[in-house]
Amino acid sequence: MFNLRRHLSFLLLGALGLIVLPYFISSRFYIDVLTLIFFTAYLGQSWNILGGYAGQFSFGGVMFFGTGAYVSSILLTTFGFPPIFGIFLAILGGAFLGLIVGYMSFRSGLKGSYFALITLAFAELLRVLANSVEFTGGGVGLFLTYAPGLSNLQFETPVGFYYFALVLMFISIVIVYWLEGSRFGAQLVAIRENEDAAEALGIDTLRCKIYAIMIMGAMGGAAGTFYSQKYLYLDPPIAYSIHLSVEMLLVTIVGGMGTIFGPLVGAFVLHSVNEVARHFIDTPGLSLIVYGLILIIIIGYLPNGLIGAFKKKGKKSGSSSLDKKRSREDS
Amino acid sequence: MISASLSMLPAAIINGFMYGAIYALVALGLTLIYGVLHIINFAHGAMLMLALYAAFFLFDLFNIDPYFSILIVTPCAFIFGYLIYRYGIGSLAKGKDQNILLITLGLSIIIENGALFFFSGDQQTVNLTYGFDAFDLGFMYLSYPKVISFFAALLMCATLWAAMSLTDLGRAIRAVAKERQGARLVGINVEHIFAVTFGIGIACLGAAGCMMLPIFYVDPYTGNMFVLVAFTIVVLGGMGSVVGALVGGFIIGITESVGGLLLGESLGQIGISLIFILILIFRPTGLFGSKV
Amino acid sequence: MLRINNLTKRFGGLVAVSSVDLEVNEKEIVSLIGPNGAGKTTLFAMVAGFLKADEGGINFENASIVGMKPHQICQRGMVRTFQITQPFAGLTTLQNIMVGAYSNTSQTKSARKKAEEVAEVVGMTSLLSQGADGLTIAGRKRLELARALATDPKLLLLDEVMAGLNPAEIDDIVKVIKGIRGRGVTIFLIEHVMKAVMNLSDRTYVLNDGKLIASGTPSSVAENPQVIEAYLGHGAAEAMAEGA
C-alpha cells in the first residue's frame, strides 16, 4: 500500500512541476506529447482498476472510450448539448456499458483469457454497429465544429488540452489512491489473488467485479469526450480501435499493474520510446514493434513492471505480483 | 430488396462453404494448440498474415504458384512455430494463463507492425493465369482458385486428422492433451510434444495462407481481421475439438457470407462477434467441446 | 445450529456423499473423520456453498442455506477454511486478515484493529508485516484460521487445519482452537490427526465412501468395529478383537 506521508513532498513537487511546465515549454509539439502521455496514463489507470487491482484483464477497454465519445459528440451535433455537461453523460454511458458487459461476462463466470476475448468481441461488435447505424454518422463519422470555449471543452491552444488531460490524470490518481486504502480496494485485490478464498470470506465477487468494470467504463467515457473535443472528428475505426485497448494495458503492465503510478510511468516510458524511435527511423510500425518487444520482455522478466523492479531493488517484501511463488504444499 | 437478396442466397451459401474449409484449417491449428498446450494463441491471425505474405513473395519474386508454395511454406511454418514455442513462448510464460495471452499478444503486435514496417501497408494480391477461369454452375460462377483451395483445405484437414489418429506422434499428442503428467510418466517428452504441436498449428496456417492468397488479399492488417473469426470458430466448435473446428469453420464461413448478403457489407460482420459472445455466455463448451 | 439431512452429491456415476444426516449444536466442537476420499471435503464444500447438493437440506440457524453463494453464507455467520491453504499471496499477513475483518466493517481503521486482535488470538502478531507467500505451512494454516476468525463467525468450518504440522505445532493449534471455542464460536472440523480429534471434539461423525457409518463421542467411535474396518480394512476389527 502506498504511504502518502513519506512521499508527500516529492509528489507535491512533481504535481507542481507538471502544472507550471507549460510556461517553460514553447514547443506545441512537446505540449502535445505530454498531453497524450497524460491521456494514455488516465486510460491506463482505468484499465489498472479492473486489470491490475481486480485481476481481470480486458482486451476491449476501447469500447468505453468510443461509446463515451459518441455519446457526447452525438448530443453535441444533434442537440447542441454542451460537452461540459455531455461529458457527464459520457461518463454515465461508459459506466452503463460496463454494467452490461460486466454483468453478462462475469455472471457467466468468464475469467482469464475468456474474459479478455469476450471484451474484445464486445468492442468489435460496437465498432460494427457504429459503422452501420445512421445516428453515429456510420462509416463517414462525425465532424465536430471548431468552437473554442469552456462549455465546449475546446481550447484554442494545446495548453488548454494539456491542463484538461492533466486534470483527468490527477483525478485518476486520486481515485486509485482512495481505492488502495479502502475496503473496496482490498476486496478487489483479494479477488485478484484468490477468488474462491475471497468468496469464502464474505466478498460478493460478482458485485465487486461489476463495480470495478463500471468505474473503468466511467473513466473511459470521459476520455472519449476529451478526445472528440480535441480532434473534432470521430469514426468507428477511431472510436473502437484495438490499438487503444492494447495501449491501455501496455502502459499499465510496463509501468506496474496494481500500483498507483504504474500507468503514468508506463505512459512516459512508452511515449518516449515512440519519440526516440520516430526520430531515428520514421517508418510506421517501428515503435509498435518495440512496444511488442517491451511487452514480452516485461511479462517474461519483470512481471511487476518497472515500478515493481524498482521496488525489489530497494527492499525485500511481498508486493503485488503476477508471478506466484510455488506453494510449499502439494496442490 | 430482400427478395433480390434471397435469390443470391444459394450463391452466398456456396461461397461461404468454400471459404469455410479454409477457415476450418485455420481454426484447426488454433484448437490443436489450445487442446494440447492450453494456450490461447493470440498471434494466430498475425501468423496467418505472415503465411499470406510468404506465399505472395514466393509468387512475386520467383513466380511460384501459391498452390505449389504450400509444399514450401507449410514445413517452414512448422519449423517457425516449433522454434517460437521452444525458445520463446514456452520459456517466457512460466505457465500462467494470462501471461501467455499477453505474450502472444505482444508477438502479434511485433509481427503485424513488422509487416507494416518491412512490407508497407499496401494491399497485395496475386494474379494467376487461371485466376478468372470459373465453373459455370448456372446460378453462379465458381472460380477455379476457390475450388482448388476448397479441396486443398479439405485434404489438409483430412491428412491432419489421419495423422492424429493413426501415427505414433498423433497418439503421443493426444496423450499429452488428455493427461500431461501421465504422458510424462510413460516417457513422452512433453516439452517436445508441446513444441511439435505448436509447430503443427502454425503449419496449418502456412498451408491456409497459400490457399487463401489467390482468392483474397494480404496487408498487415489481414491478421487482425482473422483473429476474432478464428476464435469464434474454435469457441463455437469447442476448444480442443478437431471435429468442432471443421464444423465451426463451415458454419462461420456460411454465416459470414449470408450475413454479408442479408445485412450488407458493414452490418454483416456483426454475426461473428455476436456468435462469439453468445456462445461464451450460454454454451462455453461449444458444440463438441468438453468441460473446460 | 447446523442441521444437514439427506445430503447427497453425485459426480457422474460416482456418489461422493450419500444421504448424510448430521447436526452441530451451538458451542460444540464436532469433528468429521474418515479415510481419504470419503467425501468429507465435498460435504464441506456443499455446506459452505461452493458445490451444489443434488439432494438434501442444509439448515443454518433454522434457515435453509441451500443454493446460497459462499459470501452470503459467510455473511450469515458460517465460514470455511480450505484444506489446501489459499492465502492472498501478494499481500502481507495483516492485509490477509483484514480481508476477513472487512466483512463486518467498511472502515479501514476498524478492520486493521480487528485483524491485529485476531492475530493476537491466533499467535501471529510477530508475522503481521510478513508477506503471506513467505510463511511456513504452519503459518499458512494459522493465517487461514485467522482470516476466517476475523469475519466473526458463529460457526467455523475447519478443513484439515492440522495437515502438514508437526506435533508441537499441532499442540499449539489445538490450544488456539480451544481458545476460539471459549470465545463462543462453534467449530466443525475435518481432521485426520486422531490425537487432535480425540482431544478437541465433543462429538464425532465418521464418513466412509460417502456414507455416515458412525457417530458419537470420540472414544465410542474409536471402538466401533465398522470404523476400524473403514480405516484398517476388512476383517481388521475381528483380528484386533482376537488379538486382544
Name its key features.
heterotrimer, B: 292 residues, mainly alpha, two-stranded antiparallel ribbon, 12 helices, C: 244 residues, alpha/beta, 10 helices, 10 strands
* CATH architectural designation of chain A: Orthogonal Bundle
How much of the polypeptide of chain A forms β-strand, as a percent range?
under 5%
Count of β-strands of chain C: 10
Give the rounded overall mean pLDDT of chain A.
Answer: 89
Count of domains of chain A: 1
Largest interface (CB within 8 Å) is between: A-B, 44 and 47 residues
Mean pLDDT of chain C: 88
Structure in words:
- The complex is a heterotrimer of chains A (331), B (292) and C (244).
- Chain A is 72% helix and 1% strand.
- Chain A is mainly α and 331 residues long.
- Chain A has one domain (4-330): ABC transporter involved in vitamin B12 uptake, BtuC.
- In chain A, helix 2 packs across helix 12 (262-280), helix 7 crosses helix 9 (205-231) and helix 11 (242-255) packs across helix 12.
- The relative contact order of chain A is 0.17.
- In chain B, helix 3 runs antiparallel to helix 4 (66-93) and helix 6 crosses helix 7 (168-178).
- Chain B has helices at residues 2-7, 9-37, 44-62, 66-93, 97-119, 144-166, 168-178, 180-185, 190-212, 222-237, 242-267, 270-282; strands spanning 134-136, 141-143.
- The mean pLDDT of chain B is 86.
- In chain B, strands 1-2 form a two-stranded antiparallel ribbon.
- Chain B is mostly helical.
- In chain C, helix 3 (93-101) packs across helix 4 and helix 4 (108-122) packs across helix 5 (137-149).
- The model of chain C has no long low-confidence stretch (mean pLDDT 88).
- At the A-B interface, helix 5, helix 11 and helix 13 of A face helix 4, helix 5, helix 10, helix 11 and helix 12 of B.
